[in-house]
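Final report, closing paragraph on structural work. Over the funding period we assembled a curated collection of sequence-structure pairs, and we close with a single example.
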Amino acid sequence: MHQTSRMQKFLWGVLFTILHGALTTLAFLWSYGVGSDHFEGRPVSLFSVYASEWLSETLKFPLVTASFKIFRFPGLWGYMPILLNSALWVTMLMFLFGRLCRVLSSGTKTPDKLSEPTP
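Its predicted structure, as stored:
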């Protein structure tokens, strides 16, 4: 069975953190642009308004949403909550994916019996 080294996992985590951060920023910009067009009276699809807002808010949850309501970040420091939020998302997704792979590869074992050694 192929085992992924810690360095490979770390590099994948960094790559996905950067991708999530970029996607979060692009979703915010899309939502801002659609909202601006709607506010200025230009014809905008209602689907694009709801989809851009939903995507932006989903990707910003939980740290970005909470931190911008509590703190003001000057200049480029505003990207720190996005980076931390992306790292949190990637950490949780990698953990869940690892657990899922372990459960699927264990055959008929239940998740609580994964720590028991197999004969």
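The chain has a mean pLDDT of 84. The first helix runs from residue 6 to 39. We thank the funder for supporting this effort.
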